[in-house]
Amino acid sequence: MLLPEAILKKVKLLEISTRKLVNTVFVGEYHTAFKGQGMTFSEFREYVPGDDVRSISWALTARAGKPYIKKYDEEREMTMMLLVDISGSSDFGSGENFKGEVMVYLAALLAFSAAKNKDQVGLLLFSDQVEHFVPPAKGQGHVRRLLRDLYYHQPKSRGTKLATAFQYLPGILKKRSVVFIISDFFDEGFDQSLRLLGRRHDVVAIVVNDRAEIEIPDMGVVDLQDAETGEIISVDSSSKVFREHWKETRKELIQKRDKMLRLAHVDRVDIDSGGEYIDPLIKFFKMRNHRR
Q: Could you please report the per-residue DSSP string of 145-211?
């Protein structure tokens, strides 16, 4: 399939910017932040005081007449899955970029970090349905394919149903993986399915926020369109009563969302779509490193 020149140009520019950042900043933090998928036997060596006695090979110790232990190496290769929200709310943004554009950039950073570390990476795009799935694979060429899909895929629906994506994933991921979910998480009833997903996989919720989702500026009479239903209403944003009502309503929605994320017991990174969104990821990687 031939892609439009504009899409190819976007992919190339995104690759240049993200790969440079990965090579200079991200890859070291990423490498140590996430554990491999198990341990493999490496070699025997003589026991020294302080070694874990549970590692002693009693059979070899009996034959050699002195204690030996088994050494194991961590299997570094991992599988990363990127779950990216492409519902209508991703088209919202009060700053330089829409939330959806920030989500694509974050997905690119993570995908190139995985490729640099020789890990597999896959992609699942979702709205209120699973829109598109790419099985995990390795290599820079595979990552470019994922970026093209992120830019080129046209959503079939503008609604959001997070649980649909969370329930779909266990059927296709047979081994424990690192799962990054990139969304604004404005939905209901996803906490149980997210918690179940987190029991089997290492799940990180990357929550993309926009400041205007809480406080709407004074712009006079404006038309507001619901990004998911398409409904349009005219409001007087100069009205203090309206702005306070908007603020309280949105705060309640955000508190409800945050409660569901807490109930799910997964790691979380908050990203401001209108601000700096590199530092929060780096801080998260460093936090994971200290926790290991």
A: HHHHHHHHPPPS-----HHHHHHHGGGT--S--EEEEEE----SS-HHHHHHHHHHSEEEEEEEE-G
